[in-house]
Amino acid sequence: MGDPVAKGRVSIVVERCKACGFCVEFCPTKVLALSSAFNSKGYHPPHVVAPEKCSGCDLCGMYCPDFAIYGQRIIEPKAQNKPETAEANHAS
Amino acid sequence: MSLVSVTNPVEPFLRTDRMPHIWCPGCGIGTTVNCFSRALIESKIDLQSLALVSGIGCTGRVAGYVKLDSFHTTHGRAIPFATGLKLANPKLNVVVYSGDGDLSAIGGNHLIHAARRNIDLKVICVNNLIYAMTGGQTAPTTPGHAITSTSPYGTFEPAFNLPHLVEAAGAVYVARWTTFHVKQLARSISEAFQKKGFSFIEVISPCPTLYQRRNRLGDGLDTMKYYKEKSRVKHGAPTSEVGLTMTGEIIVGKFVDRDRPDYQSLLRGQMVESLGDHYVDPSENVCSCS
Amino acid sequence: MQADPRGVLTGTHFIDGDHACCEGALAAGARFAAGYPITPSTEVVERFASRVPTVGGSFIQMEDELAASITLQGAVWGGAKAFTVTSGPGFSLMMEHIGYAAMTETPCVFVDVQRGGPSTGLPTLPAQADMMQARWGSHGDYEIIALCPNSPQECFDLTIMAFNFAEEFRVPVMFMMDEVVGHMTEKVVIPPADQIEVVPRRHTKKSVDAYEPYATNGDGVPEIAHAGEGYKFHVTGLTHDERGYPNMTPQTQDKLIRRLQNKIRDASDRITLLEEEALDGADVIVVSYGITSRVAQRAIELARRRGLRVGKLRLITCWPFPEERIRELASSTKAFVVPELNLGQMVREVERSAGGKAKTFAVPHAGGSVHRPEDILHAIMEASR
Prior knowledge:
Chain B is of the alpha/beta class. Chain B contains 10 helices and 8 strands. Chain B has a single domain, classed as Rossmann fold (3-Layer(aba) Sandwich). Chain C is globular. In chain C, the strands form 3 sheets. In chain C, strands 2, 3, 4, 5, 6, 7, 8 and 14 form an 8-stranded mixed sheet that branches. In chain C, helix 7 links the parallel strand 7 and strand 8. Chains in contact: A-B, B-C. At the B-C interface, strand 2, helix 3, helix 5 and helix 10 of B face strand 2, helix 3, helix 5 and strand 10 of C.
């Protein structure tokens, strides 16, 4: 019942985007499209058009040459009904 | 549903105070940096031990954008600089990150000798088939009949087949991907980190502003679609058969993965054999200066 | 601090300048050399290749001088004291990287055992014709330090000084030998390690967060960090700011380039080493350096026997040039005589600094052999008239 719950979420750093279109094209579930909005450099950054289809695979993040977008998985644990975010185990 | 604020996995590897970078819309260099970052995460490399050396050119600017000990050196000479770093401190993981012109034209001699010696370096060669930074001149890798600023009537020189060149010179790991193959590229870089010796990963990448535009090949996205459509993964393909043309098939994959003792093992072996106990291993006094 | 005894071949030796230079480098703490064979310099690295594996360092013969001159810089940033050795044609190839060392403030030593030029010239015969090249050979504005030994003993002693200057001022130092000094065999005394003063690398003590690779205080020389220590610094040949980041504006250029110049010029009193003899009341002062100073010594003796009042000024440091001293002496002497194994290089500096207050007589020589004492004597007598 109800709408499918998104398994992922996309974050966009609007000011870094140069509207190359890679993320839009290579998102496996076509979550994104270039918006009609402008950033301060005059580019049309992407926006999420189908959030429920986002799996959090982060292919958009891997493709983006400008480090302007990334995806992350949202995990809903079955027992507690409290979601956690899984993130890449990054060293720094 | 609560979301913990999480940064882009690539963010910790960037000098965020220098963003946005200078690369053009649709340029693939940034994409390779994402793959590099993922590989660093996957292989759990100690970032303190990592040094990145680049030359001059668009890809050479990578050194200035990554938050690592990084050296932006002279045109063509990243590899010998990296050699010096590695020999003075063998505990360093040394990556050379540079472009096709820098590594194979002015740097060609150093490329073949480092491969011959099997110096333990990981070389990421972003090949956009052109000298991009200086305005789109012919590179040794520019495919036939292309228009460039120094070949206004079309190139006619045979182009280098880089995997073939470095394999012949002695590299132990040779792979080629395009900027479309993000997962495979990250994996190749990780594999190179596990290997001792001279590793060479060529990444075919768009230069939409110069190479693609002058040759009416579309923009960055068109080029990525071309990579997707025309690439063929052929692991272990004979490198003599992986030459590139302007619009033809792109053979990608891991071509060479072999084992040869690296320079430092050979050095040590020879010295111990000749000098026995008189040999003092340099790694025993890394910093000779204080 | 004292020299590391592992690199000091204490004792009395009978060796040539090339060999003595190698021992000087080892005594100074050099544990890395990258070289390429070129007559008459090759013996320096041949000896280093033989000595360093028993001392604890590396030598690599690179594929060309372009590589050698930057491989040594990679080794410096990896923590070692490093140098290379060459002669004219190789020196020309190294110019870009001498500029890179100056711009990135990489402490290192470039040894040039000068031979007849230009081009292939006279591979086995002496000249002193790279002196201006040592100062101006790379493009752009930068300062270097250049030292000129005139004996195998000085090839040992001054090599240590070269490394010390390099570390203190974070600058590439040119060690300007010539084929005769390099190939002449003389007594060289190497003292015990505790009598050899060595300048350590100016390594930062700041924390990772506080450190800026090109920030300075006081003497205009920044503190260095090495790769692999966690500082995550950036080094570039592009015009850069205190963070080491490229910053290509006229303001940053002015600030950086002037600092690179001033850190040397402001300390020139300490850097410019001279040997002076009988300058007070001298009618003629012979200004010379390197092997020519040995011949000049004879000519000066002969002139003095003829009753002439001749002073001697030997340039141990050729760059920075002792402009002030020459200017000073020009007021009290009649003439300078400048014999060199070239068609007139350092004599231009003498003339410029003298400002017309004293005459300047060049004693040029195209190279290939050394002057005869009579040639220099003749010039001294001309100058005395």
